[in-house]
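User: Good morning. I'm curious how flavin-adenine dinucleotide would be positioned relative to this chain. Could you predict the structure with it bound?
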Amino acid sequence: MANVTFHFNHKLTGADFDKNIAWFEQRGHAPKTDNTLNPKQPSPNKREQRRAPEIEVSFDLLIGADGAHSAARYHMMKFARLNYQQEYIDTLWCEFQISPSPTGDFKISPNHLHIWPGGKFMFIAIPSRDKSFTCTLFAPSICFADLSKAPEEDLAPFFEKNFPGVSPDLISPQDLQDQFTSNPHLPLISIKCTPYHYNSSVVILGDAAHAMVPFYGQGMNAGLEDVRVLFDFLDQHGVYDPTVSNDPAARALARARALEEYTMQRTPDASSINDLALRNYTEMRASVTSPVYRLRKWVEESVNKYLPSLGWSTQYSRVSFENERYSEVEKAVERQGRILMGVLGLSLAGLVGVGGFWAWRWNHARPTGRVLTGWLLWAAKRTEEFAR
Ligand SMILES: Cc1cc2nc3c(=O)[nH]c(=O)nc-3n(C[C@H](O)[C@H](O)[C@H](O)COP(=O)(O)OP(=O)(O)OC[C@H]3O[C@@H](n4cnc5c(N)ncnc54)[C@H](O)[C@@H]3O)c2cc1C
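Assistant: Good morning! Here's the predicted structure, ligand included:
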């Protein structure tokens, strides 16, 4: 876009959101040798000598898209009454690569997300355009600590036991060890905060507003959705429409209203996707192996495929392939769960009822039938209660 100018290597170091001024450190420029940063001090100390020069910038609206450790959010906290919550989960992650096959093709199907569920840990592989796979090992920090003691001895057996088919088939044991030792072992943070704005001067989006664990693959998607929602509200309030108003004060008022609505809409949605992402870790590493989980998934996918008019859809497809608000997805999926359990319960009650009838008839012939009838009646009652 012709009206966009990039300034790389400029680090936000401070902001006054009442005066609409921000300060940026110009990294990559010659360090300061004078002491203008602290004029009271007669000679520059070593730290100041190392610091890059700073520039002052004035703005109408500062959009803080500066990630989980956002400086925009940090400085906004001094102006807005911002509630903030962060959690490091006890899981670290490390990246691995599966290179293309000797014939230059994918080594495994590129049309799937590959998951090796290990209960307490998991390994996943996602295809890349160059026919390699980007893989991630997620595991508790204690597990990383144990494997780091002697990776040359422990890593290959750990993979063989927990993620069969990965090594040596897809990654050689030596590669596995090299990648484990050279790639960083990184933490996972989950952040919730609100509001996302202060007056008409600043708004945060993406990870700055709602960093989440990566188990729903929605971090970047949610950030892009923030942009859509934010600009919908700015457009609705005519903030950038010159025919609406050229008066800066009126514009600032319209912008403040748009940012307020953005916060109101996005706070519950971001909170929902943060929670769903946390829950999905259990689903990916453990629940996928449970028959009950698979049954529900199969039923939901079948209803979605064969009876689309019912508007039934799995949580995953609602989150990943539709524009439904995350908070509404949570409610809809809860409702679907209740209906599903009700139908399942009633079907069981029906089966028990038919069984009971036959047992009642049999009852006249054998005394043991009486016991069976009693049991069936009890089971029918419990099933009915469960379905309710
Ligand atoms: C293992 C893993 C897997 C993931 N998988 C997925 C996935 O499959 N799908 C998905 O949608 N998301 C995924 N995510 C999440 C996704 O990576 C993030 O949600 C996304 O990158 C956030 O984008 P962002 O622009 O908000 O922040 P960031 O990508 O963190 O970008 C912030 C930018 O701000 C800059 N910055 C920081 N501080 C300052 C400062 N003081 N001044 C100026 N600039 C600054 C940084 O240099 C950086 O360029 C995954 C994350 C992880 C950790």
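The pocket of flavin-adenine dinucleotide is lined by residues 11-12, 65-67, 71, 93, 136, 206-208, 214, 217-221, 223 (CB under 6 Å). The CA atoms of residues 286 and 297 lie 15 Å apart.
Let me know if you'd like a different ligand tried.
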